[in-house]
Specification:
single chain, alpha+beta, seven-stranded antiparallel beta sheet, 5 helices, 7 strands, 26% strand, globular
């Protein structure tokens, strides 16, 4: 499955976030042949092999260790926080497999620095699911990013593709087991 950069869907939680904090936002999409809802995507994303490495880094820099149980609690809506992230809003359509979540990240006792967005959109006709992952970054002053943050954007975009691809493979593995 190929991860590609796509437009941020109009009306999505990420589009609303970008309207309020216009410094930087992106969206990546991969379509998986399996039918998956938002909780299944979240579990696969935050517990994928690539993200488990990120969780280790977050533990070392002061956010503490995180577990698969904490991932499950976030995915199932039993928790509103996970390591560096806090849930801002979650939308799920009852009886449907579509859903999205917006989480802000930042220091435990400080203002948010940006957001992470996940969306699962199932195609009822063929059972495939579009998995979307986006990020938003707030600027400290106005609508411009600092030169340091701007310089890291290409690395961030590469990592985002790797992360979404890893999550899609993990989702397929879990749903075919």
């Amino acid at each position: 499955m190929m991860v590609r950069s796509t437009e941020i869907p109009a009306g999505s939680l990420l589009a609303d976030y970008q309207d309020r904090h216009p410094a930087y936002a992106d969206c990546f999409t991969v379509t998986t042949p399996v039918s998956a809802d938002l909780p299944a995507f979240m579990r696969a994303f935050f517990d994928s092999p690539v993200f488990r490495l990120e969780r280790r880094v977050l533990a070392v820099i002061g956010f503490g260790p995180s577990t698969a149980e904490e991932v499950a609690a976030l995915a199932e809506g039993r928790s509103a926080a996970f390591t560096a992230w806090r849930v801002v809003e979650r939308r799920e359509n009852a009886g449907e497999r579509d859903g999205e979540i917006l989480l802000e990240f930042g220091p435990k006792d400080g203002p948010p620095r940006g957001c992470t967005w996940l969306q699962a959109a199932c195609d009822a006709a063929d059972g495939a699911t579009a998995l979307r992952f986006g990020s938003g970054v707030r600027s400290g002053k106005g609508a411009r990013l600092s030169p340091l943050i701007s310089a890291t954007i290409p690395l961030h975009r590469f990592y985002s593709r790797q992360l979404l691809g890893s999550a899609e493979r993990e989702l397929r593995r879990r749903l075919s087991a």
